[in-house]
Amino acid sequence: MNFSRRELFKVGLAAGTAFSMPSILRAQAGPADARTLRMVMSGDLSVFDPIFTTADITGCHALAIYDTLFSLDSKLRPQPQMVGKWDLSDDKRTYTFELRDGLIWHDGTLVTAADCVASIRRWAQVDSGGKLIMERARDISKKDDKTFTIALKEPLGLLLDLLVQTEYYPAMMREKDAVRPATDQVTENIGSGPFKFNAALAKPGASFTYDRNENYVPRREPADGFAGGKVVKVDRAIWDNIADSQTALAALQAGEIDFLQGLPGDLYPVIESDPNLTLQILNSGGYVQCLRMNCLQKPFDNVKARQAMLHLIDQEAFLRVTASDPKFGHVVTSIFGNDGPYSNDENTGWHKKGGDPEMAKQLFREAGYAGEKVVILQPTNIASFSNASQLLADSLRKIGINVELAPSDWGGLIQRRVNKGPVESGGWSIFITDDTNVSLSSPISQIFLSANGEEGWYGWPKSEEYESLRAQWADTETFEERQALARKMQRAWWDFAGDVYLGQIVAPIARRKTLTGMIEIQSNLVPMWNIQRD
Amino acid sequence: MGIYILRRMISAIAVMAMVGFFIFLLLRLAPGDPAAIIAGPTATEEMIAAIRESMGMNDPMPIQFMRWVRGILGGDFGTSIFAGRPVLELMAQRLEPTLSLSILTMILSVTAGVSFGILAAWRTGGLVDRLLTAFSALGYSIPVFVIGYFLIYFFAIRTHWLPVQGYKPIEGGLGPWFTHLILPTLALGLGFIAFIARVTRASMLEVLSEDYMRTAAAKGASSYAMLVHHALKNAGVPILTVIGISFAYMIGGVVLTETVFNIPGIGRLVVDAINNRDYPIIQSVLILTSGLYVLINLTVDLAYTLIDPRIRY
């Protein structure tokens, strides 16, 4: 087969057209509209009801569309948000709250005290702090359309803190939504917050759109943490769900998105080398990684074996595999986390020598360890936990412990961790998880910090001494008294070694430099107000 | 022919039923609890148990299975545990991106693969053949995600010619739709081009060595007539088989490509569903995929009769 010159010319012309096509189409790949914020959050929003889950992504969704009675400021103090005025009776048993003016649901109806009462009751079905309020409450009822009261059987000085330092986002919902049981998800995303959920543009698994709530009346105070005026400076925020980190990073570099949360640490250098991008720490407390041991089964039913783990763990070694850069990883020795109001150095002698395998070996011997299998649940789809699990297995093997890694995804792990039985019956010995550093300041609602045995969280540590101290927390009136109590609690905790910390990891977000006004607060929830694109 | 098609359709239903049964069983036996995933990482056992109860997941497995089968027979593929929307609705939302990517990739793969194969066979042993063989080896051995990142780097980040990720529906205009599909199609298609080109070359070489080809050349037939009218037609059955297999394999490749290029298609839907243990979605997608496999095989079998009149059913 021979080609004529004319045919070659045609082929050349066609090829030229094809190769020039991208430049013709270039305009279509341009950056998003200036008043539209494009964000990639950490995780896929699949549950919309903040009373149904503790997932951070649902909390972020709730923060956008639902308002709260009080909000945390940047110093982690409760400040009025939906509440205009509040008052505490002389006998300290009755709180009266009056809603501020201008509160309107996204469907156009007015926010009433009855809505708030129903919302508190729903939230209190699941949240530890809420449950405590309900235990102490004699009555929660509305006085008029804008006023309601919480009448207590006995004073509860921490009430306002309990309303803001929560496991479940204390969203105020319409009464007709809030009367549903906490186990029955709300079906409409109607709040009174600064953003409205655009249900028509919702593409589950792909993207969600939030529009500025033009009826929202912000408080007059400047934005401060979650508190103050929630002034929205964009018309629309779109959450794109980009599952692959490398692709999300490329989209950020190309200007297709403005904000990226949950970027793996090994990609930080790419951000730092790009003149248009920057890393920013919004949550300076980050996470604390925690090693939970099954205290019901051998060998960790013996306190000596648990103490052995305290001496074995070299947090700096773990941080090298979990935090990509030393500046984003810190050793944490207080059960109340780092730099918190109750952080202290009581009973932290175990830490002074760093990892001490010889001491750990001796303690395992004293615990009567006889070669029982130690099963570490390894969630392979969470790199940080997976790497830490491998390092832990290696550290234990080096001191003669019979270790088996049980790899699965996180979904498999959370099903298996329910099993309280021995490893031979599908049980487990250790798994690694985390929670925010800031949550460790609240031993009432923080799940790691309970030691009530099988009634508590996975691992089921039990210490009557510690629990009796924890029970005093809510009734301790002054900050100084709580600090003193915190020291006693920490002494007890590290003695019975309820769990072991592996370090604090601070994860910066990545953003384009044109994005300004991001609010910094010790929380994993990302506020979208105050942000603007230049 | 009609009876043959009917028989194949009945066997397709049987295959889908068996797939459905095994998928249902495997999902329940595999570790993972959707209630625990929904409740969040720090939820208590009581909250997880309450969610499980409210979703009917504590019912005995046979009851859950019968409920599911009854739904399917009535055209109801269930409701997503997480999204709370009908599975069919979610699948319908994701169908267009996947179909767009698959069809474009198939068009590219068949056109380029068959052309390259013919060209290589025609110039066997020459520079073109060696170059195409090298290209085929590369295209076949480089994973989709490597090609994807490479394309993104050059055509999106460096030059800004094309978008990095995402999908624009066809109703929003052909331009944006096509622009967003160029890189994914190239990334997904390269392996299939290589595969089809290699098989086409081998089939063509076999046919080109036949006596009747030599006779055609002796009678003065042009190269074009020899290659396309005589050789390609006779080499068509294995090529068609490979195209059918490629289309079936593409369903797997689409998952990775959709992830790399962030295309909200069926592949991404099922990957997310597996991570979340969203049983109704996984079951429905896999059943329909198995049906699609059977349909592709049937179509290929019927297409044989078009290119080889000796084949009859």
Written overview of the protein:
- The complex is a heterodimer of chains A (534) and B (313).
- Chain A is globular, with a radius of gyration of 26 Å.
- In chain A, α9 (303-312) runs antiparallel to α11 and α14 (464-471) runs antiparallel to α15 (479-496).
- Chain A is built from 15 helices and 21 strands.
- Chain A is an alpha+beta fold.
- Chain A has helices at residues 5-25, 56-65, 113-123, 128-136, 159-164, 175-178, 245-253, 268-273, 303-312, 315-322, 357-366, 383-398, 410-416, 464-471, 479-496, and strands spanning 36-40, 70-72, 78-80, 83-88, 94-99, 137-144, 147-152, 195-197, 207-212, 236-240, 259-260, 277-280, 287-293, 329-330, 374-379, 403-408, 430-436, 500-505, 509-512, 515-516, 532-533.
- Chain A is 29% helix and 19% strand.
- Chain B is built from 13 helices and no strands.
- With 313 residues, chain B is mostly helical.
- Chain B is globular.
- The mean pLDDT of chain B is 87.
- Chain B has helices at residues 2-29, 34-39, 45-54, 61-73, 87-122, 127-141, 144-158, 174-208, 211-218, 223-234, 236-260, 266-276, 279-307.
- In chain B, α5 (87-122) packs antiparallel against α6 and α8 packs antiparallel against α11.
Global mean pLDDT of chain B: 87
The total of beta strands of chain B comes to 0
DSSP summary: helix tally of chain A = 15
Please trace the helix and strand order of chain B, writing H or E for each element: HHHHHHHHHHHHH
Biggest sheet: strand arrangement of chain A: 8-9-10-1-11-19-12
By secondary-structure content and strand pairing, the structural class of chain A works out as: alpha+beta
What profile does the largest beta sheet of chain B have? Answer: none
Q: Strand share of the residues of chain B? A: under 5%
Helix content of chain A: 25-40%
- Which value, in Å, is the CA radius of gyration of chain B? 24 Å
Protein structure class of chain B: mainly alpha
Radius of gyration of chain A (CA) equals 26 Å
Profile the largest sheet of chain A: 7 strands, mixed
Oligomer: heterodimer
Helical stretch tally of chain B: 13
Low-pLDDT sequence parts of chain B: none
The percentage helix of chain B is over 70%
- Average pLDDT of chain A, to the nearest integer? 91
